Amino acid sequence: MLLAALAAGMSSGAWAEQYPVRTVKLVVPNPPGGGTDLVARIVAERLSALWGHTAIVENKPGGGGNIGAQSVARAKPDGYTLFAGYGGVMTVNQYLYKNLGFDPAKDLRPITLSASAAYVVAVHPGVPAKSLSELVALVKASPGKFSWASTAVGTQDHIGGELLQYVTGMKMTHVPYKGGAEGLLDVVAGRIPVNYVTIPTSIAQVQQGGLRALAVTGAERSALLPEVPTVAEAGAPGAENLTWFGLWAPAGTPDAIVKQISEDVRKVLAPADAREQLSKGGFSPQPMTPDEFGAFVLKEREKYGRIVGSLGLEKQ
Q1: Which of 32, 128, 160, 196 could serve as a FRET partner for 179 with CA atoms 20 to 30 Å apart?
Q2: pLDDT, tens digit, for every residue of 77-91?
């Protein structure tokens, strides 16, 4: 038995030393262009350079992120198919969907957090609201007339938007999209008046005048939008919300490979140019060890369970 254990350990170690020997696929549960996709592509590009083997991004949107996560949960646990997802899929969806198609606590192993970003509450320029308080007053004065765009039901975008309405007393109709970029386009086109979207996804339109930013959801103002107040400054303390992005592997993936990927992500995001590349897009790099990330995800899952419960949202 001792010899068998030693052999198994050597095999696992040898496997990790040789990893990767071919293309690694990062499955993103959103369409191209959103925050999750942008972070995944930055990580994939830099891992490819480090590994000498290509890390590719495959977009599998739909089901509030569940379709992409489910596909990775069912993949071979060899480190060559990873889930490049966002917090809502792994911490919120279980409270909003009757059937995820996978168990976020058992079917996917945490590898590392990669980055985080705040949201912006924005409106089409034609909406006569120059501040969050003006929007709240406008919505309350016109019940049933306002709608807002975000990603699908159960995503962190959706929950954050619901939390904002809960805190401010607004009531708007939610219009869900597969990805943040798709909802953004409809708001810019004037089909939807209000957008709850990540800063990285919306920054170009805000700067070009396609959207009017009313507040950001971080505890501090964004360096990219320094003139835009936080939700607390704008009169909605308690509506703070951050989206975050990470990597997971199928359950059963060897410890050595999970550890290596985590260390390699930390390595490629450490240089100043990598941090600058992320910060220009509104992201803050935050790599963690697998254990740290697992504890973080558990804490977030418990937090959003309380939030969903307080909002009275039902499973669909």
Answers
A1: 128
A2: 999 999 999 998 999
